[in-house]
Design a protein that fits this description.
There is one protein chain. Helix 14 packs antiparallel against helix 17 and helix 15 packs parallel to helix 17. This protein is α/β, with parallel strands linked by helices. 44% of the residues lie in helices and 20% in strands. The strands form six sheets. Strands 1, 6, 10, 11, 12, 13, 14, 15 and 16 form a nine-stranded mixed β-sheet that branches. The protein folds into four domains: 97 residues, no CATH class; 203 residues, no CATH class; 112 residues, Trna Endonuclease, Chain: A, domain 1 (3-Layer(aba) Sandwich), CATH 3.40.1350; 187 residues, A middle domain of Talin 1 (Up-down Bundle). It is built from 19 helices and 26 strands.
Length: 765
């Protein structure tokens, strides 16, 4: 049965339509180059926007940039006032001072959540939907290639070509370089050609909504439309050097190709986000679903409606539950930026005779990682053979692995998965460990927070960094600082990451450091964690933890079933002990009725005194048995459970205690019955009638207790109707009534015996 689904609703067409509407108008790229500071002398200044002006508030600086980008003329009237003349001649005055906004009627207040700021944000969004940038090309491609292609570092497992190994502190891959094992000495480096290329950077708003919360985050995705490969977003340094430009002539073609690649690259992230949201609610959903099934099953047993009506109502409730627990994952394209950059092809001549060709992005000042000749995927760590063929660390498998190209065993790049649109996920969909690295940053933080909370910690603050997330919270052992990292593929946890986690607790006395990562931990990392007192939760922990959480409801059901079966077995054992104790007393009372030994004369008074004393002790024991029977019945629920079973409220210790109490009370009652059974059964002066009434009273009271014990059959706990016997309780009431009548007859008979035999006054009357 399909139940929990997520809907992905790409809305990239909005940007395409916006571009079509603005085809005839030139595209303006807003330039956000504002220097924020404080006016030295505090006096109001006024100057055109073309002259850099320091403003007191960042909101005013933002308003200035937006107004200039829209074509308005802006003047600074004061440190907290902007005057703008729009294209239509209308004037607007903005301030961030509340007192000035109240005194001047034509001045609008800029405040977060205000109408004026909301309008400027909308204007900014409209202008930034389609922009174009030209990256600076001052870098020397040969120098960039020589600097990026670093030689392996001695002692670094990654540089030696071992896949899934930690990277040392000096590993060139940490700085974004390309580590080429076996490169040797480069005798000559020359630029072969240079050309201009267009890249597209897309900004998506990813929304994930489930029953618990809604997560909105913005993702920047760089795309090379020609090779259809995903690029890293532009960093701050590249954006600072960029200049505004006009989009290319074939902008629409490039945008469509980039949108397709961007949607395909986002698909694993959306799938992983949906899996996390589903995992958080799966157990609760299954419990609610089982409650619906149990409710309608009980209604069917009670025949509260026709089968067709009950089936329709059940399906309707399930559909409502599916809607409540539905997971919606939506990726909407917010903006697109065309990036003009210059690429250069650089050839490195090796001392061994071969050559290696690399592509250098001059705008980003980076070298594109070479493609592996075996898997055709780009990689930043690998080896180079004597002919210049590059093999990544994963394909080489060992430091001295053979070159696939030289052996004629090169493979083609695997086809990319097809993009998926709106669909539903079935119950088999779960969060795999491979999907953790594909999560968006917001959902990765949500997953880590959820895992910590499931382990008993309370997360109080989450700090998002460029490559890591730091969570502060409290637990049973005090303050907890958790560092969550997602390392690149083929990168294992090393001593560097453990030291970073330990440093977060350096200023907090008694704080406990936790390092969470989706990468395997190396031996060096484990040794450093043990030395520095860092709790290490690596790939192995996440695999085990996610598997347990994915099966939490099934495990919960199995645990509940085992617990219920164990309680039922303990209750059945206690029930047998109670019945055995009562059966022994009833056998003694039956043998006492068959006693025909006679007593006469002075012996009647002694026999009557013995029976009276034993009867008083038996009554005390029976009163304890009455309380015990109430405790026995209160151990079970009066109504059936949601699944139609008998709910056993008492725990195993309580049920075991009931069995022990039954043995003690049974022994006390048997002692009294033995005394009465040994007394003479026949005597004159009304002795026989009185003794018979006493035996009948004790027998019927014991029978009432036996019926109360038989009212519950724990062995049939799965079926409430079979486990609870209402007729047994009726029989217990009838026996209790007969015991009352027998007690009255015994009191009347003893009064006659007391008069005839001249017995001393007794409490037995």
């Amino acid at each position: 049965m399909k139940w929990l689904f997520w809907r992905r609703k790409p809305k990239a067409e909005a940007v395409s339509a916006e571009m079509a509407r603005e085809e005839e108008a030139p595209l303006h790229a807003p330039v956000f180059a504002t220097r924020i500071g404080a006016v030295a002398d505090g006096r109001p200044r006024s100057a055109p926007l073309s002259v850099p002006v320091e403003l007191r508030d960042t909101l005013l600086a933002f308003a200035r940039d937006v107004l200039v980008a829209s074509g308005a003329r802006v003047r600074v009237e004061a440190t907290d006032v902007l005057l703008a003349t729009l294209l239509d001649g209308a004037q607007r005055r903005y301030t961030t001072t509340l007192a000035r906004a109240r005194e001047e009627q034509d001045t609008e207040l800029l405040v977060v959540g205000g109408t004026a700021l909301a309008g400027l944000l909308e204007e900014c969004a409209r202008h930034s939907r389609l922009t174009a940038l030209r990256l600076a090309t001052e870098a020397d491609p040969v120098a960039v290639a020589r600097e990026a292609c670093a030689l392996p570092v001695s002692g670094c497992a990654q540089c030696s070509g071992t896949a899934d190994a930690p990277r040392c502190e000096r590993c060139p891959a940490r700085a974004g370089g390309v580590t080429l094992r076996g490169l040797g000495r480069v005798t000559r480096a020359a630029e072969l050609r240079r050309w201009t290329a267009w890249q597209v950077e897309l900004t998506y708003r990813v929304s994930c909504r489930d029953r618990q919360e809604r997560t909105d985050e913005w993702l920047r995705v760089g795309v090379d439309p020609e090779s259809q490969l995903r690029l890293e977003p532009l960093d701050t340094a590249a954006l600072a050097r960029a200049e505004s430009a006009m989009p290319p002539a074939d902008a629409e073609v490039l945008l469509r190709a980039a949108m397709q690649t961007g949607a395909e690259s986002l698909d694993p992230a959306l799938t992983a986000d949906a899996a996390v949201a589903r995992l958080r609610s799966a157990a609760d959903f299954h419990r609610r679903l089982e409650d619906i099934g149990n409710t309608f099953d009980r209604m069917a047993r009670e025949e509260t409606g026709t089968p067709a009506a009950l089936t329709t109502a059940r399906q309707r409730e399930i559909e409502r539950l599916r809607e409540v627990f539905a997971v919606d994952v939506e990726a909407q394209l917010e903006s697109a930026c065309f990036v003009e950059t210059t690429l250069a092809e650089v050839e490195l001549r090796l001392a061994r005779g071969g050559s290696l060709t690399l592509t250098v992005d001059l705008g980003r000042a980076q070298v594109h990682p070479p493609r592996c000749v075996a898997c055709a995927r780009p990689a930043d760590v690998g080896g180079v053979c004597q002919h210049g063929h590059f093999t990544c660390a994963s394909c080489s498998g060992k430091p001295n692995g053979a070159c696939a190209a030289c052996a004629g065993d090169s493979a083609q790049l695997p086809a990319r998965p097809e993009a998926r649109g709106e669909h539903e996920a079935d119950e088999s969909m779960s969060l795999a460990i491979e999907q953790v690295d594909a999560l968006t940053p917001g959902m990765w933080a949500a997953l880590v927070r959820w895992l910590l909370e499931r382990d008993g910690a309370t997360v109080e603050r989450v700090d998002h960094g460029a490559t890591e997330i730091v969570l502060h919270g409290g637990g049973a052992e005090g303050h907890v600082v958790a560092l969550a990292q997602r390392l690149p593929a083929g990168w294992a946890l090393g001593e560097v990451e453990v030291k970073r986690a330990a440093s977060l607790c350096a200023g907090s006395a008694g704080a406990r450091a936790v390092l969470i990562a989706s990468a395997p931990a190396s031996a060096q990392a484990r040794a450093a964690a043990a030395r520095l007192g860092v709790q290490l939760l690596d790939l192995e922990y996440l695999c085990e933890r996610l598997a347990i959480l994915a099966q939490s409801y099934q495990r919960e059901r199995e645990h509940a079933s085992r617990d219920a079966a164990a309680r039922a077995s303990a209750a059945a054992t206690a029930r047998e002990q109670m019945l055995a104790a009562l059966h022994g007393s009833e056998e003694l009372l039956a043998s006492a009725a068959a006693n025909n030994r006679r007593v006469s004369g002075a012996g009647i008074a002694g026999a009557a005194a013995t029976i009276s004393g034993a009867r008083q002790s038996a009554e005390r024991a029976l009163l304890a048995w009455e309380t015990f029977a109430d405790d026995w019945l209160s151990s079970f629920a009066d109504r059936e459970g949601r699944d139609g079973s008998l709910v056993i409220a008492a725990d195993l210790a309580r049920l075991s205690e009931l069995g022990e109490r039954a043995g003690h009370l049974g022994a006390a009652l048997r002692q009294c019955c033995e005394v009465i059974a040994d007394s003479p059964g026949v005597g004159a002066l009304g002795y026989s009638a009185w003794r018979k009434a006493v035996l009948e009273e004790l027998t019927t009271r014991s029978e009432a207790l036996r019926w109360r014990v038989l009212a519950v059959e724990p062995a049939q706990w799965r079926d409430f109707r079979a486990a609870r016997d209402a007729q047994a309780l009726a029989q217990a009431d009838a026996a209790a009534s007969a015991a009352s009548h027998a007690s009255a007859r015994a009191a009347k008979a003893y009064a006659q015996l007391e008069t005839r035999a001249r017995l001393p006054a007794s409490r037995d009357t």
